[in-house]
Amino acid sequence: MRTPRQILLQSLLVDARKAKGLTQAELADALGKPQSFVAKYERGERRLDVVEFVDVTSVLSVSAGDLLAKIEPNPPKKRPEVA
Q1: Is 9 exposed, middle or buried, given 0-12, 13-18 or 19+ CB atoms closer than 10 A?
Q2: Which residue has the higher pLDDT, 82 or 34?
Q3: How far apart are CA 20 and CA 75, in angstroms?
Q4: What phi and psi values does residue 9 have, to the nearest 5 degrees?
Q5: How far apart are CA 81 and CA 50, in angstroms?
Q6: Residue 79 located in a structural domain
Q7: Is 80 exceeded by the pLDDT of residue 79?
Q8: Spatial contact of 41 and 47, defined as CB atoms under 8 Å apart
Q9: Domain limits at 19?
Q10: 8-36: per-residue pLDDT in tens?
């Protein structure tokens, strides 16, 4: 069972691939993986490990940190500035 945060990350990765104008097959080729690799994580049938995640975001030219910040459960609050 996937959590809402996993579903959001999956959606962000699909959107990033499409924004880059890549098909699943083209992304997979750039990663040196079969097309089924991309299809499975995009459908939520498999999870990416951290190295795979960094590789995917690198090929897609998106910041891994920015994507992770979007799925943070409780984003850190800004600290009040000390005068």
Answers
A1: buried
A2: 34
A3: 27
A4: -60, -45
A5: 34
A6: no
A7: no
A8: yes
A9: 4-70
A10: 999 999 999 999 999 999 999 999 999 99
Residue with tokens 């699943």: 24
Sign of the dihedral through C-alpha 19, 22, 25, 28:
negative
75 within a domain of the structure (yes/no): no
- For 49, 54, 66, 77, 78, the CA distances from 82, given in Å and listed in that order, are 40, 36, 27, 15, 12
Number of compact structural domains in the chain: 1
Are 6 and 12 in contact by the 8 Å Cβ rule? The answer is no
What burial class does residue 48 get, using C-beta atoms within 10 Å of its C-beta: 0-12 exposed, 13-18 middle, 19+ buried? Answer: middle
Nearest CA-CA partner of 59 in 17, 19, 7, 24: 17
The answer to whether 13 touches 42, Cβ cutoff 8 Å, is: yes
The amino acid at residue 15 is: D
Which of 66, 73, 79, 75 minimizes the C-alpha distance to 12? 66
Q: Would you state the structure tokens that stand for residue 67, as one six-digit string?
A: 């994507």
